[in-house]
TrEMBL record:
Protein name, per record: 2-oxoglutarate synthase
Keyword terms: Oxidoreductase
Record-linked InterPro entries: 2-oxoacid:Fd_oxidoreductase, THDP-binding, TPP_enzyme_TPP-bd
The Thiamine pyrophosphate enzyme TPP-binding domain, residue ranges: 50-196
Length: 272
């Protein structure tokens, strides 16, 4: 791990994350996936939005963009269109990616552009003080919902699939080795990839909802996550209150930058 730190991290300590936050585990999983694939650092760009998770890009030794709130995907789309040979990875959170960035999310998935999105899902807006997000479970408390949220949460994996994503996976901070694997597969996939990384926020979500400390929240991930393979053997009643981890969906569809280049080629031929 020391060699990975020297190679892939910028010397920016201390970091901003709270004690017990799972964002460091998820960030480490991204780095391990990149290293596993042997990606060229000079050909890999990491784009993030705004939020606790999005601060990860500042710690990583790549060409990085810490963009505007909710705008990581249009920035990443521009980078990928400008140079389709680049590996473009997007780091976002449940608020940044699905609230102010929700419209960009569904249309980037619809286009099936070859971007890999790692969405850190801690069920809360952490950096701004614990407001509820579109992924906060119903009836959960937040600073903007002191009596509990009324709204139903998105299932971001199902939303991505319905919008047209051709690779959808989920992992957790507890299941870190699996998280590395599904991120690596997403990066290797030729099309839009979403990896939902379920992680814990013991300060703003955990305290308000009496979830215990970080270790207790990690145990909750352990006890409620079911692999895709194991879920096939369980009844709907047995799956109640559980969530699936692993590769949830994979399909093939035309990739956007290749289609875009084909239009350019046709236009250039027609102009001659």
């Amino acid at each position: 791990m020391e060699k990975l730190i020297e190679k892939y991290y910028r010397p920016r300590l201390p970091h901003i994350w709270c004690p017990g936050c799972g964002n460091g585990i998820v960030t480490s999983s991204i780095i391990k996936a990149i290293d596993k694939l042997g990606l060229d650092q000079d050909k890999t760009v990491i784009v993030s939005g705004i939020g606790c998770s999005s601060r990860a890009s500042g710690y990583l030794n790549f060409d990085t963009v810490h963009s505007l709130h909710g705008r990581a995907l249009p920035v990443a789309t521009g980078i990928k269109l400008a140079d389709p040979e680049l590996n473009v990875i997007v780091i976002t959170g449940d608020g940044d990616g699905t609230a102010i960035g929700g419209n960009h999310f569904i249309h980037t998935a619809r286009r099936n552009i070859n971007l890999t999105v790692i969405l850190f899902n801690n069920n809360i807006y952490g950096m701004t003080g614990g407001q509820y997000s579109p992924l906060t479970p119903t009836d959960s408390k937040a600073t903007t919902a002191p009596y509990g949220t009324l709204e139903r949460a998105f299932d971001i994996a199902e939303l991505a699939k319905a919008a047209g994503a051709t690779y959808v996976a989920r992992g957790t901070a507890f299941h870190a080795n699996m998280l590395v694997d599904v991120i690596a597969k997403g990066i290797s996939h030729d099309g839009f990839s979403l990896i939902e990384a379920v992680t814990q926020c013991p300060i703003y979500f955990g305290r308000q909802n009496k979830k215990g400390d970080a270790s207790a929240m990690l145990k909750t991930q352990r006890d409620n996550a079911v692999t895709v393979e194991a879920a096939k053997k369980l009844s709907p009643e047995q799956l109640e209150g559980k969530f699936k981890i692993g590769v949830l969906h994979q399909s093939e569809a035309p990739e956007y930058t290749k289609q875009y280049q084909a239009i350019i080629d046709r236009a250039q031929k027609g102009a001659k």
